[in-house]
């Protein structure tokens, strides 16, 4: 049964051109995990962002398409595997990544935390960004002293 479900999800994902609409950002001591889902909560994807290298931006997109149950199990395993350093913590809900930026110190991730529907084109919603957030990528133990300087601010 589970293999049939996996096949159906993979086929639907390939043929329907689905897109992810809502995201949850989690963190461990060494990684951020951006968990995205489609509008119908049928497809779940994972983006892993390394936090251990303050001067490099390392991002890995998991090629697997998960079901909601599989995604919950994955998060549970990540939490259990990181218990010694504080486990997995929820950071925020968001609607997308605007991008990544680096000034003089560490990299930052810019995310959309609030949006407002302003219209539609051919039945597809168009949103404006009403609130965003800038999150420092390296964890507090890995970041350079540059992150707190006047020039960085």
From TrEMBL:
Topological type in the membrane: Peripheral membrane protein
Domain SAC residue range list: 95-143
InterPro entries linked: Fig4-like (IPR043573), SAC_dom (IPR002013)
GO biological process, one term: phosphatidylinositol dephosphorylation
Entry keyword Ribosomal protein: no
Main location: membrane
A cellular component term, taken from the record's GO annotations: vacuolar membrane
Any GO MF annotation of the entry: phosphatidylinositol-3,5-bisphosphate 5-phosphatase activity
Catalytic activity: a 1,2-diacyl-sn-glycero-3-phospho-(1D-myo-inositol-3,5-bisphosphate) + H2O = a 1,2-diacyl-sn-glycero-3-phospho-(1D-myo-inositol-3-phosphate) + phosphate
Keywords from the UniProt entry: Hydrolase, Membrane, Vacuole
Location(s), subcellular: Vacuole membrane
PANTHER family: PHOSPHOINOSITIDE PHOSPHATASE SAC5, POLYPHOSPHOINOSITIDE PHOSPHATASE
Complex and partners: Component of the PI(3,5)P2 regulatory complex at least composed of ATG18, SAC/FIG4, FAB1 and VAC14.
Name used for this protein in its record: SAC domain-containing protein
